[in-house]
Design a protein that fits this description.
The protein is α/β, with parallel strands linked by helices. The chain is built from 8 helices and 7 strands, in the order ααββααββββααααβ. It has a 5-stranded mixed sheet. It has a two-stranded parallel ribbon with strand order 6-7.
Length: 209
Amino acid sequence: MINIDQLKEFIKTNLFGSSLIFLGLIFVLGSLFISVKPNEQALVTSDKITPATDFHLNISPTDLPEIKVDIEGAVVNPGVYTLPASSRVQDAVQAAGGFSSQADETKITSGLNLAAKINDASKIYIPVLGDGQDVVMAGTSSSDSQFFGGKVNLNTASESELDALPGIGPVTAQKIISNRPYSQVSDLQAKKIVKSNVYTQIEDKVTTQ
């Protein structure tokens, strides 16, 4: 059985050593707390901050606005092509495979602006050697139509050339061809081939010579 007086004497004798042990425990626990705290703070911070590289703007090419362009004449593959809305004449030519070996380089050089922007539903005609036609690019109305070079000859132009004129579709183009020859442009109205509003749009873009 432990004697109370002996226990008190033991504590008094070893008080200094006990204090050192107690202080040592406090120091160890404090060191652990300090080492863990910054890591916890860093972990919280990293959870709140997402690097900018984790964000991606996903835009599909099909989401971009597009236009359709009909390019005919002296190109490798004439036809209708779907192009980005910001396309130029050069883009349409490239889409059609480039100029063909029958392209009239003189007329193209003098009359075609490859840097010109093209509108939706535009039609571009590239002149063929010997066909007497100049470069034409027409939109869907006179307000957005652009013509490069000379006028369309009502007596010699092909259906595609006539179709490139504003307000003239394949049916009217064939009607113009069927009613040849023309001695003057006003014959289009005299023969009741086009309406007056269409005639106003094309009268300065066609010729009979």
